[in-house]
Design brief:
heterodimer, A: about 210 residues, alpha+beta, Glutaredoxin, two-stranded antiparallel ribbon, about 35% helix, globular, B: mainly beta, 4-stranded antiparallel beta sheet, about 40% strand
């Protein structure tokens, strides 16, 4: 309980406002969500295009060695909160999909991603949440370019924040594969993301 | 249940670590204080000052250009122009801004409504034009006069000044993706269509600056004038009563996430630049009205309701001093106010934001427009040009960038670049560049 209170306090301080009511605002199309060949945490080949259609997708680019508290750990944490929320909300459970895509395939092997997923995901309930990467860094490059996800090596591989520098990018993708919002750590309020997901689900039902 | 406990544990770690970053950020970052909160920050001191410069007919090639000045003390080219990229046309160069990853610099032309997108990542010392948006009015549904570019996650917000229908002051906010794709147009509220905002009776539909306070999920906009006025000579406007009425009288508070206007404030006299305070509990922003020479505060009252009030006069000169750019120190204690009319920078103690006190003033030149301040508050940069047809003429037509050190009591000059002598043009908006870009900003760092 203490942990939950601490997290709530952080949200109150960083996001000091009431989230909007789903369906009361527009989410204009930003651009089509790109596809690409990836592998999941079992090593199975998957096509990103197929995973960004049919449901509202929340997709986060991460790498598991990231230690910058407001970067990948925060993004994964927010996806974890969305996953927990979906375990108690049938609309989210059936209509939302979560993707955590590592841009560090040399380290984030399928086995590493499976272990990471086990640490952060409730495996038994909630919406689909997959952990993906590419076969190689070279194979990941066009996907990152298509999504505008910049990644640089830090000057020191032993940097306390991790060896890679990047902006936080989390994408909201509608059921037709169109990007409808892009969040950074400054806007990745789980309440806003849920409002956005529900707004897109309501649009589909109209 | 086990996983839920793990996630909860993780939440606590994030909370504690985020608090720690508040301290670290203040030390590491030395960016401009007026940057978008979504912008990746410079680590350490700025290496370059980029200057978006209006072409001046008969001076050099007469075209707008991005001028890069070396600002790194100890560099062999310190205080010198190290790069100048001409866009080959005059567009009434005005303001610009970086994308949130700081890889691109978007520069806007008020007259042509063109947007010039420069690559400042491959070689920050020598920016290169990578793309030009030339169909702005057609794509946006009639918004013209793009004022600048304000970094949002994965996109830029472009507040405009005019419209293609009558070229008056009714205008819009426009969004483009970082790769130059158009996203949306949000028209400013008017009396006829206030989009549900309170204070609709004041709504004039005008625009100028647009800035976000993420912590409160609010976007604040200000208002200037349309193409008919900003492309006319200043003297001709003063001689035309109808033209004098065509200036913005409002600021608007928006719900940022939904892009819905919530409240229109009556702020007479063309409120221009907006500067949100950075303090974690500082729910207020400053602006200055150009035509009435006043400082205004937009703030959350004791009930959390947003209010606007006049808080101080700028100068004590009959007819006003035309305050233009303002810059708030990172600790929210000092507000630097540039005035075009008398060429002075005035420094106000705004520790009590409701009761500013002027503590210093210095004449920088015979005309003065923009001021950029380093995050540590130690360096100030000034430029001169306001609008091509509003700038002073003859000997009063100073066109320079002047750099100063500020020790909290006095400004001491460090270097100057004479844009007239170098045949570069009229220097306007300044932005800091660096070879090393730091960590993304945090919400808590605000």
């Amino acid at each position: 309980m203490a942990c939950v209170q601490a997290a709530t306090a952080a949200v109150d301080r960083d996001y000091d406002y009431e989230p909007p009511r789903p369906g009361t605002y527009q989410l204009p199309v930003i651009k089509p969500a790109a596809g690409g060949s990836l592998v999941d945490s079992t090593g199975k080949a998957v096509e990103l295009r197929e995973l960004t259609r049919g449901r509202v997708t929340v997709m986060s680019f991460i790498y598991t060695r990231c230690s910058a508290s407001r970067a990948c750990p925060y993004a994964t944490n927010v996806l974890g909160q969305l996953h927990l929320a979906s375990s108690e909300d049938k609309d989210l459970a059936n209509g939302m999909r979560l993707l955590s895509v590592s841009f560090d395939p040399d380290y984030d092997t399928p086995l590493q991603l499976a272990n990471y997923a086990d640490a952060v995901r409730d495996a038994t309930t909630g919406c689909d949440w997959q952990f993906l990467t590419a076969r190689s860094a070279h194979a990941m490059e066009p996907i990152l370019a298509a999504y505008g996800q910049t990644v640089d090596k830090r000057a020191s591989a032993k940097d306390p924040d991790g060896p890679l520098s990047h902006v936080v990018r989390v994408f909201l993708i509608d059921q037709q594969g169109q990007i409808r919002n892009i969040y950074s750590s400054a806007t990745l309020d789980p309440r806003l993301v849920i409002a956005d997901v529900k707004t897109l689900l309501l649009l589909q039902n109209r | 249940m086990i996983t839920q406990l793990r996630i909860r544990s993780c939440l606590t770690v994030v909370s504690v670590a985020a608090s720690a970053i508040v301290f670290a950020t203040g030390i590491l970052h030395a960016d401009e204080t007026c940057s978008s909160p979504y912008l990746a920050r410079i680590e350490g001191q700025e290496d370059f000052v980029y200057v978006w410069t209006l072409g001046d007919e008969g001076l050099g090639d007469g075209s707008d250009k991005l001028v890069t000045i070396d600002a790194k003390p100890g560099s062999p080219h310190y205080g010198k122009v190290i790069s100048s990229y001409s866009v080959g046309s005059r567009n009434e160069a005005h303001h610009g801004g970086f994308t949130d990853d700081r890889r691109q610099l978007w520069l806007a032309g008020l007259d042509s409504s063109k947007i010039f997108i420069f690559d400042v990542h491959t070689d920050p010392a020598k920016p290169q034009l990578m793309k030009t948006i030339g169909d702005f009015a057609e794509t946006t549904g009639g918004a013209i006069g793009p004022h600048g570019a304000y970094a949002l996650p994965g996109r830029v917000l472009i507040p405009c000044l005019s419209n293609s229908r009558d070229k008056g002051g009714k205008t819009a906010l426009v969004e483009y993706g970082n790769d130059g794709n158009y996203i949306a147009t949000h028209w400013m509220p008017t009396k006829e269509d206030a989009h549900g905002a309170a204070g609709a009776e004041f709504a004039d539909g005008y625009g100028y600056d647009a800035r976000v306070l993420p912590r409160k999920n609010v976007l604040l906009t200000s208002s200037f004038t349309g193409w008919n006025n900003y492309m006319a000579g200043f003297a001709s406007i003063l001689a035309n009563p109808e033209a004098k009425r065509q200036f913005g009288q409002t600021m608007v508070m928006w719900d940022f996430h939904t892009r819905q206007p919530k409240k229109v404030f009556q702020v007479p006299g063309a409120p221009l630049e907006i500067r949100w305070a950075w303090g974690a509990n500082h729910n207020y922003a400053f602006s200055a009205t150009a035509l009435t020479s006043k400082l205004w505060l937009v703030y959350a009252d004791d009930h959390g309701e947003w209010q606007a009030k006049e808080i101080a006069a700028v100068g004590d000169v009959k007819g006003g001093v035309l305050p233009v750019d303002i810059s708030l120190s990172a600790d929210d204690s000092r507000l630097f106010v540039d005035s075009f009319g008398d060429g002075k920078c005035r420094v106000f103690d705004v520790s009590d934001p409701q009761n500013p006190k002027q503590i210093y003033e210095k004449e920088i030149g015979r005309q003065l427009n923009m001021v950029s301040q380093s995050w540590d508050g130690k360096r100030l940069y000034f430029t001169t040009s306001l609008l091509a047809r509003w700038d002073k003429s003859g000997a009063d037509n100073d066109q320079f960038l002047r750099a100063y050190n500020w020790d909290g009591k006095e400004m001491k000059p460090t270097f100057a670049v004479d844009f007239n002598a170098l045949k570069l043009g009229r220097p306007h908006h300044m932005l800091f560049g660096a070879r090393t870009i730091g960590k993304p900003p945090t919400v808590a760092a605000q």
